[in-house]
Design a protein that fits this description.
Chain lengths: 513, 201
């Protein structure tokens, strides 16, 4: 339903990814007039998503960011997306739940931060999101609290990398399970969304799924939101949030087709992700009485271990993330804070060779020879907790982007805990690969999933939003995305972002109904 | 382990309905794009960049070389970025121009000749020194040599392995996905997946 910019709509939602889309659907279902502003395009997957990495680089947030610190974070193909659906357009769709103790890092370890909510307050949202997306997963997931319901669908087929990780792990006594993955192992129907087909095992999740089998927001919560009357405005880049005399935000200013537009609204939900959410607030000097906007940047230790095998693997086939282990969630011999999970990884060729160039510095005949083994490579990676540090933050640089706005500069350096975690994981993953028969094993150090910058908490001096995602400074401004996570969690963030988005929407609706 | 695959596999697949129309268009366009006249680099800079790329991703004697440097010139002409850069580096365009100047400075300092006049082995020595941050030359006092090398190398290999002919070399046929993939486990191949033709240990 198109609204007029002169009309006073109930809510403007900025960003249509994992933080914005579920919330948008919830508000629309409650009968609110809602408009979503999305910086990227509205893609047509069948036409616009070829099976080609270069052609799909348009799905990444390719506005330049400056990466500083000892372990500079890559963006673009890592950590960012653009288009209706946001970064979910190219997430691997691994959807493990956080465990209850992930939310109590400070209580358990004396460092980092606790969440202002406990597991019970998001568990039923996890359940709801999994059923709605049609998550495929094992009948009995071996880690974490018992589930209320089984996963919506049975597990996806296990590809070569997954079979090798199972084989190696079994030999050295590490428990594995088929992963929970938000790609459909069979056709799935949802009221308000329609029918989505089962996964074609195309292996292209980290680009964009061309058939809608992967639960990106554009084929799940966005159609649901539209079904309930929400309006989606693509190619609208928000530049300003205007406050009225009462200190509330009354208008959202955005650029569309080179024109400045304004949408009047009662409430604003900022869901633009860790970097752009904080950047917009810093640009407008808003919601920052705590001085915490842009602080506490975290990024999961994401070390990958690659190996070559005699077997034919064809790493382009099957869901990239097939097998998981959470045996290292609280490893007995851990000398670091929190824990990590292990995941098998398939990979597309350009991504693989590019990582090999960066990670191993290979070129010339050495590079070509290593690349010729592509069909025989398989990887394992970790995702582990990361502590918030004062030395990791983002700021506005002096350099301007194409819109004339300052580019963000992001500082990131792993601390001692993250270094120790990587060292532990390096040993474990090499043992698994050795037991599975790997040769030419090599490590690609990396950090995945940027998190933080607008922490939630109970204290307005140390947090930007409260436990409901509401700004301490501006009562009609809410934030719903990975920027509000007080700690990084030891799991892929997407499912938790969605669960938290639904909770934020419900808490808002309860308060203002 | 060197693994070889039959030539023509990807090109043969592109004419079938095993690929989607969107995929075919992207790959056929790349396959048929003629060599580029540079618009970002000067002719001299572009010739030097091509020579450097040939050492990073050697192609040997071939009647259809993959245009690695062309993609770099095209990207910089359109002021496109990959979404980030190291804070210690200047903008991509400036980094490339400076880095190419630095490569020639290092070649002069090490061999008293421009890079283009050196043998392949000598060119490799220059590039290796840059990668290891041991190359002489004024440019490397301001431009971080290792980061420049990493960025150049990554872009060169991305351009190379995005090309259908390079994908044939490594036996990649992931683009042929319209019938879906049924056989995804270890040693499970579909008929359309090429078999290695020769393995030399």
């Amino acid at each position: 339903m198109p609204y007029k910019t002169s009309e006073l709509v109930d809510a403007v939602v900025i960003g249509t990814g994992a933080g914005g889309a579920p919330l948008l659907a919830r508000l629309a279902k409650a009968g609110l007039s809602v408009v979503a502003l999305e910086a990227g395009k509205n893609w047509n997957p069948m036409q616009d998503f070829p099976t080609d990495e270069k052609a799909q680089s348009k799905l990444f947030w390719n506005d330049e960011r400056l990466s500083a610190g000892n372990d500079p974070l890559p963006f673009g193909s890592n950590n960012s997306g653009t288009g209706v659906g946001g970064s979910t357009l190219h997430y691997t769709a691994y959807t493990p739940r956080a465990q209850p103790d992930d939310l109590r890092i400070r209580t358990d370890f004396g460092v980092g931060e606790d969440w202002p909510i406990d597991f019970d307050q998001i568990a039923h949202y996890y359940d709801e999101v999994e059923q709605f997306l049609g998550v495929s997963g094992p009948a009995n997931y071996p880690w974490g609290p018992a589930r209320k319901r089984a996963y919506a669908l049975g597990p996806l087929p296990i590809n070569g990398a997954g079979q090798l990780m199972e084989r190696g792990s079994k030999k050295i006594g590490i428990k594995t399970s088929p992963a929970a993955n938000a790609a459909l192992s069979a056709g799935y129907y949802q009221e308000g969304v329609g029918h989505r087909p089962g996964c074609a095992n195309r292996g292209f999740c980290q680009a964009g799924c061309n058939i809608g089998a992967k639960a990106s927001m554009d084929v799940t919560y966005i159609p649901l939101a539209v079904h309930y009357g929400a309006e989606i405005r693509p190619e609208c880049f928000v530049t300003q949030l205007i406050k009225d005399a009462s200190g509330k935000i009354s208008e959202v200013v955005y650029m569309h087709n080179g024109q400045e537009e304004r949408q009047r609204c009662r409430f604003v939900f900022l869901c633009a992700g860790t970097i752009e959410t904080a950047r917009l607030l810093l640009l407008n000097d808003l919601a920052n009485s705590s001085g915490q906007v842009g602080r506490n940047v975290m990024a999961h230790p994401g070390l990958q271990i690659w190996g070559e095998f005699d077997e034919d693997i064809r790493p382009y086939k099957g869901i990239p993330g097939a097998i998981i282990s959470e045996d290292m969630h609280r490893a007995a011999d851990a000398d670091f804070v929190g824990g990590y999970l292990l995941q098998s990884i398939g990979v597309m060729p350009v991504t693989y060779v590019s990582q090999m160039a960066r990670g191993r510095g290979l070129w010339g005949q050495d590079l070509k020879q290593a690349a010729s083994a592509y069909n025989h490579v398989a990887g394992i990676n970790i995702l582990g907790d990361c502590l918030p540090y004062a030395h990791n933050y983002m700021e506005l640089s002096d350099e301007k982007d194409i819109r004339g706005l300052p580019k963000p500069r992001v500082y990131f350096s792993n601390g001692e805990s993250e270094e120790r975690m990587n060292a532990h994981a390096n040993k474990v993953m090499r043992e698994i690969w050795s037991a599975a028969g790997a040769k030419n094993v090599w490590a690609f150090p990396r950090n995945a999933h940027v998190i933080g910058t607008c922490r939630m908490g109970n204290d307005s001096n140390t947090a930007v939003v409260n436990a409901d995602g509401q700004s301490f400074d501006i009562p009609n401004l809410y934030i719903s995305d990975n920027s509000t996570f007080p700690s990084a969690l030891s799991v892929n963030p997407a499912l938790t972002i969605m669960a938290l988005a639904l909770r934020t929407a419900d808490r808002f609706l309860d308060a203002y109904k | 382990m060197t693994i070889k695959y039959p030539v023509g596999t990807v090109r043969d697949l592109l004419t079938t309905d095993l690929v989607t129309e969107a995929t075919r268009q992207a790959l056929v366009k790349r396959l048929n794009t003629p060599p580029r006249q540079p618009t970002f680099f000067s002719t001299d800079e572009f010739t030097l960049l091509q020579a450097v790329c040939d050492r990073l991703v050697p192609q040997g004697e071939t009647d259809q070389p993959i245009p690695v440097a062309d993609g770099i010139d095209e990207r910089l002409s359109g002021s496109e970025t990959n979404g980030w850069r190291y804070d210690t580096m200047p903008t991509d365009g400036d980094a490339y121009k400076l880095g190419l100047k630095g490569i020639d400075e290092s070649a002069q300092a090490l061999f008293q000749q421009p890079f283009l006049s050196l043998t392949g082995g000598e060119q490799d020595q220059v590039l290796k020194a840059i990668q290891l941050m041991e190359a002489p030359g004024e440019t490397w006092q301001t431009l971080p040599a290792d980061r420049f090398f990493e960025e150049l190398l990554a872009e060169a290999v991305e351009n190379y392995y995005s090309h259908p002919i390079a994908q044939e070399e490594i036996g990649y046929v992931g683009m042929a996905d319209t019938p879906t993939w049924k056989r995804v486990g270890l040693d499970q191949l579909e008929d359309r997946e090429p078999r290695a033709v020769q393995i030399n240990e």
